Amino acid sequence: MNRLYQHTDYRAFLREWFAEAKEAHAAMSYRFLASKLGLDPGFLVHVFHGQKHLAEKHIPALAVVLKLKTGEAEYFRRLVLFGKAKGSTETKRRYEELMQVREGQVRQLSTKEHRYHKDWYIPVVRCLLGTFEFRGDWEDLGGRVRPPITAAQANEAVTVLRKLGLVTKNDDGVWEPTDSHLSSGDAWTGHAIQGFQRQMSELGLQSLEETPKEEREISTLTFGIPSDDLPDLREMVREFRSKLARWAVSKDSADAVYQMNIQIFPVSQP
């Protein structure tokens, strides 16, 4: 049910779930589902196709049918409320409430899992596997990375990701990520993390020279502030990073992978 957290439209999620349930169980139908919820089948069809909304009182029963766990059920409830929101003020509030639940599902990597950051291309490959159907063509996968990596490196990356439980092969033989978003937490102190940041910073410099301007966004800002305000500045950067992560996860699909480096450091003597 990890895909639930990738949705911001509850009816799109229901259509996806219904198609899979119908394929797995021949008895599944709108009439069968409506009987479980005490609803009119015609009304349920309108809900699934975006013409009507599900009443809040029916959400718990549907969550049971969907076999949602506690956190998933709460996300689904807020997903319905977001879909029913009217006006910009309520829509904004419901969206923020939805993202609070989604952010709580962000997986934090343990210390032993920081093998994930040893080579810069491993996180890139994980994200790439969410953009197309990869079935084992290592040369093709390596060629999709920018700058390209070898087939052996692509194979190595997927092997590491599989051992960490970050990717899995589905029943159709397609490799896909198991988590939509990851975080190393606030303790970016390990050698692997520092090495990863160094590699990505170097790639940023390389991109400045080799990537067309219309395909990147690299800008700088030099400013003066009281040195005692540095903690506030760092907190603003963290808030922006968190907001950006929630925005990225809210996208139902992706066809490209980008890297963002936020760099703030002193350029004057104390």
Would you give an account of this structure?
With 270 residues, the protein is mainly alpha-helical. Strands 1-4 form a two-stranded parallel ribbon. The chain has a two-stranded antiparallel ribbon with strand order 2-3. It is globular. The chain starts with 9 loop residues before the first helix and ends in a 21-residue tail after the last helix. The chain has 2 domains: 103 residues, 434 Repressor (Amino-terminal Domain), CATH 1.10.260; 165 residues, no CATH class. The chain is 51% helix and 4% strand. Helix 7 crosses helix 9 and helix 8 crosses helix 9. Strand 2 and strand 3 form a beta hairpin. The mean pLDDT is 82.
Strand order of the largest sheet: 1-4
What are the segments in which pLDDT stays under 50 over at least 5 consecutive residues?
A: none
Which sheet architecture does the biggest sheet show?
2 strands, parallel
H-E string: HHHHHHEHHHEEEHH
Q: What's the mean pLDDT score?
A: 82
Query: Could you say which structural class the secondary elements and strand pairing correspond to?
Result: mainly alpha
Number of strands: 4
Strand fraction band?
Answer: under 5%
State the separation between the terminal residues, measured CA to CA.
Answer: 52 Å
Tally of discrete structural domains: 2
Q: What share of the residues lie within helices?
A: 40-55%
